[in-house]
Amino acid sequence: MSTRTLVIATALLTVMGAASARAADIRVPEDVKSYRKALRRARPGDVVILAPGSYAGRLTVRRRGVTVRGEGAVFSARKNGAKVVVIRGKDAAVEGVTVENGTVLLKAAGAAVRGLHLRGLVGRSAISVRAADAQVEDNHFEPITYTETGEAVVLVLGDRAVVTGNTAEAVLFADAQLGPRGQNDFIRVVGDDAHVSGNAIDVSDGTTGVRVVGDRATVSDNRLDWGPDGIVVTGNTTTVSGNTVTNGFGVAIEVVGDDATLTDNVAEGRAGDGLRVVGSFYTIVDNEISMGVPTLPQPSLITRAPLSLLDVANYDGPPVGVVISPGALTDPDVTVGCPAIVIRSEELGGVVEDNTIEYSMGAAVNAVTSGATLRGNTVRRRGAAPGVFAFEVVGTGNLISANSLSSGAVVAGGFAVRGASNVVESNEFVGLAGHAILTTGGSNTIDGNRIFDPRRLGSWNALIDIFDNDNLVLRNVIEDRSSSHGSTSMAPALHVTGDNNLIEANRMQGLAAMFSMEKVWVGGSRNVVRRNVLVACGHFGVIVGGSGNTVEDNQAINAAAEPRPALVYANVQDWVELSADYMVYGTDNEVCHNGSDGAWGSGFLVEGDGNDIHDNETGNSVRHGFDVRGDGNRVHRNQSFDVGKSGFVVPYGNDNSITDCVATGSGACGLEAGGKLTSLIRDTFTGSAVHDVQITGTLSVFEGNVFDTILEP
User: Fold this and answer.
1) How far apart are CA 492 and CA 520, in angstroms?
2) What span, in angstroms and rounded, lies between the C-alpha atoms of 581 and 555?
3) Distance CA 651, CA 172 (A)
4) E strand or H helix at 509, and its extent?
5) Taking the alpha carbons of 310, 313, 316, 321 in that order, is the dihedral positive or negative?
6) Is residue 400 within 8 Å of 424, Cβ to Cβ?
7) 348: Cβ contacts below 8 Å, ≥ 6 apart
8) Nearest-CA neighbor of 554 among 565, 567, 563, 543?
9) pTM score, whole prediction
10) What is the pLDDT of residues 589-630, one digit of tens each?
């Protein structure tokens, strides 16, 4: 070792030894009779130890780095609310003393109070901090009564505050005022980089548990019981985790600001909101929320909800938004019509994923947002007000996927999506009594959803109801697996209104006992109804109205599916006459390559002009195979077999043509024709019980037909 290094090391040891020598324990009254003299003697690093007993006057620590430790020492205020402990020295601390009817003030950076016991009647904050880097740790607040409102039990004004491990019980305000939200706080921190953790607070009356105003706050592992609000944090880049908030009213946890992370929090037994976030870039994971019955007027800003996300920021960045995954939100009691999750984030989107929501009355998710993902959530419902949906989504470009909804409710709906370019896919609905899916707006995709055992009692709502243009309705399944859920519903199972919609590869089964009328009803123009399958669905299979629509490659198998309709349709008294697997009314529609078997009524019923009905097949229907009404319709290359009445019926109209069609085994006639037929060419009508051909109108061209008997006028 060089001489220079040895000199430096020796100097450092000397300084350290001197500092160690200066640090000392000064006992009162053993070493010094009064604590004031002890404080005047103390140097940085010294500890003044107070013996058990009562001490008069104010404890003021002025020296830097001095610690005062009470071992049963009690300081009582001469006047309620007067300052009893004051720290003015930087990095000084007071530990383990009891404060009666008075307050504590920290006015130096790095000051700390630890292990204090505070009790009695105070007029304002029990502990006030007006400096940075303060520490308020492991203090206990026994019954405290406040004579003024608008105060905080612990008030911190300064950055980098640490408020941890404090406990409290029975904090009261003398006038018992509830007042507006946030009137009284137990812990209030105003400053950046605050750390508030491990506090256990039993608050009451108008006292909010924890309120933090500042950026980069961490609020974790606190236990709060009762009060209007549990935790309220205002600032950016905040973390709220592991907190438990029980009982009381108001919001359990509220965060206002961007970049909020809420994880592993529990809110239960409260009458107000569970979680509320206002801002952008939320991450909300593994929270459990169980709300109780409201007993007091709600002070909520927007609505009462176990989880409320309200984005009012003007933000131009990428759609990061909300992440809620996975969590549990439960409402064990039937309550007022309040949603479980509320999102107001018109631009930011986000993710609501893998949550379990047990809820009654209000919506499980109420969202006004765009670009959001609602995926993998499980919703169990027991009741709802009329017209209330489990998911109510307003916006564009949202994805609603792989959610599960079960309900025993009478009029509860599934998903209402209002906006364009949304995707509703692979969701499952069990036991609904109203809409499963309702969309308004264009270019939505409804794909691969499964609807089981609907209970549509007295409802006019279609199970899938699509409004507007350019929608895709694909691969959905609607099935009554029990065949015991009869209803008086007049609405179709699938209803699409608008133009240029594609209804493809959907399957409906076992709906004959539903009493409902139409199973697929499409209104508008240029729609395509293709490759759908309907099994045992009863009265009407597919109804298409409008012009320029295409109905092709569908299969309707309604054997032994006798319907029980509930109304007379379209002013026609004989409802059986209008029953059909396929009913097309309007102009210039194409009906082709469809199959019908066992229709209760007719296989195909076409009303309108200029329709093209070709390459279809029907059999075993109760009434007719093809019933065509109107002018200028083309009926060609169709087959009818073993129907109850006539294979083909054209009761009236002009300029209709029947070409290359086959009818065998008809219960009455192969063909009944009235009005004016332009042509009857290369048709085969055989095996009819009455006449193969019965013509009561006029016929222009008759050639190449095969039949056994004919009745002409």
Assistant:
1) 6
2) 9
3) 86
4) strand 507-509
5) negative
6) yes
7) 280, 281, 311, 313, 315, 319, 320, 321, 322, 369, 371
8) 543
9) 0.77
10) 999 999 999 887 899 999 999 999 999 999 998 899 999 999
